[in-house]
Each structure stands twice: as C-alpha cells, then as structure tokens.
Amino acid sequence: MTITEFNNLSISKKEDVIFQQSEFLYVHTVGNEKHGLYSNNFFFIEIICDSETLATKEINSFNSGKLLDKYSSYLAFKTNQ
What we know:
- The chain is an alpha+beta fold.
- It has helices at 3-7, 11-21, 66-69, 72-79; strands spanning 23-30, 33-39, 44-50, 56-62.
- A 4-stranded antiparallel sheet has the order 1-2-3-4.
- The longest helix has 11 residues, at 11-21.
- The radius of gyration is 12 Å and the shape is globular.
- The relative contact order is 0.18.
C-alpha cells in the first residue's frame, strides 16, 4: 500500500491498517492525548487519540519532516540498540 492509497481510506479503514498491518514503534502522552507512531513498510503513521477514551482524533501519514522529527530521539535510540 502506498501513502496515497492510505490517505484516501476512511478513518475506520486507516485504523484497520494501523492496528492489523503496521508495526507499533512508540507512544507518548501530550496533555490529554496519546500520540502513537507506527511503521507500514514504506511510510510512518501517527495516530492521535484521547487519553481516556482512546477515541481517534487524528491520523497522519508521512515519510519524513516535522512529524517524524518529534520521534527522532526515540528512533535514534531504537536503531542504536
């Protein structure tokens, strides 16, 4: 699946791809939100959920850039192990 194909999916289909076909990498809490990072072979996916209900607020897909930069310290640590 390409990043464009993923972006064209509905929210529920994106959630299926995230939780069934992607590899979980990292999660951190920002205020009342949990930000989860997943890898799907050719791109990364960030899912932002409400901390209490875990309801999806936002899903972002990317290859690089500012969205990936906020996870860079974790990814650098993981690749150096």
